# Entry
Amino acid sequence: MSVKVGVVGGGQLARMMIAPAVELGVEITVLAEQPQMSAERAADEVGDYRDLDTVMAFARAVDVVTFDHEHVPQDVLRALVDAGVAVHPGPDALIFAQDKLRMRARLHELGVPQPEWAAVSSVDELQAFIDDHGGRAVVKTPRGGYDGKGVRVVENAGDADDWLAALPEGDSLLAEELVDFTRELAQQIARRPSGERVPYPVVETVQRGGVCAEVIAPAPRSGGRVSQVAAEIGATIAEGLGVTGMLAVELFETTDERLLVNELAMRPHNSGHWSQDGAVTGQFEQHLRAVLDLPLGDPSPRQPWAVMVNILGGPASDSLESRFPLALGAHPSAKVHTYGKAPRPGRKVGHVNAFGDDLDAVVYEARAAAEVFAD
Ligand SMILES: Nc1ncnc2c1ncn2[C@@H]1O[C@H](COP(=O)(O)OP(=O)(O)OP(=O)(O)O)[C@@H](O)[C@H]1O
Ligand SMILES: [Mg+2]
# Structure
């Protein structure tokens, strides 16, 4: 018997599923958006993930369909399910990672703590929300945002004029209170279709310019209450939304010690890259196990601390590979991962994982190794 996973989307997340798939003996194939993407090694097909015929033909040749991103349209996903294709996560769960307004409404129903929010579709509605929330708000486009694109802090409703003007009839933007957070955390949890769940330790994530820059696992000072509350929130969402595969819950820890949900991702996530080398079962292998409904692996950290530092941008004048001798030579205990992407300012082109007993030393090691790839 051989099992075959089909991944829609050819980015770095699909790329990083390839190694554990090979190790486990699972066939993997990727529907990439373009030739020569990150997951090229498994990209047997190039095609439009919005086109039903393309995705259906791809799905027919595999045992389960999963994703590198959340952009496959609902009608395509539903047609796959209707045709008997195993899709994980399924459309009924994925909608809440596709649409931040739907997510806010559903989390409210589930009683999950989150920032105050409202759907706004006019300058007046947005201004009223701003006035009610201390003169500031965060405005988000409900769909299609990533890496902080589609997120804006505003003090006047006019600052979101362009987005409001471009709204299709009947659509709204998401307005949120500007949360006074002390730090950002992320809780990952794997869930199988048959119901088994495995939580990872809660981690601290550091964003710069709306982009994840560093992750510390486990989150410092998270023993006891913080890790317990985060795990409960993760379990409530995974179960309540029927998520299959890896779920990431982005959280704010507030100055008054509450945890509020920022957003969800239903796939491997940047906040879990540390687990590739730092946990008994990394998130990419765990995602494959979960979508195949195989028993889940142990998520325990192998060392007291793991730190992940993203390589953002990369060298302008030469390739990432040209820096390998220096990075690998000077940092033999760090694990370097690159995504086969051309360097471009701000672009996520790789990351470094480091581990050990002493957090300061681990942070230093991961940053120093990543710095070798900076311009
Ligand atoms: N309500 C809020 N209050 C304060 N800061 C916020 C709020 N919402 C978002 N942010 C900040 O903006 C960042 C990006 O927001 P969000 O995660 O919603 O956007 P995204 O572009 O979908 O994310 P990603 O980078 O995870 O793809 C957050 O990590 C956080 O730093
Ligand atoms: Mg986010």
Q: What stands out?
A: The chain has a mean pLDDT of 96. The first strand starts at residue 4 and ends at 8. The pocket of adenosine-5'-triphosphate (ligand 1) is lined by residues 115, 138, 140, 145-151, 176, 178-179, 184, 207, 210, 250, 262-263 (CB under 6 Å).
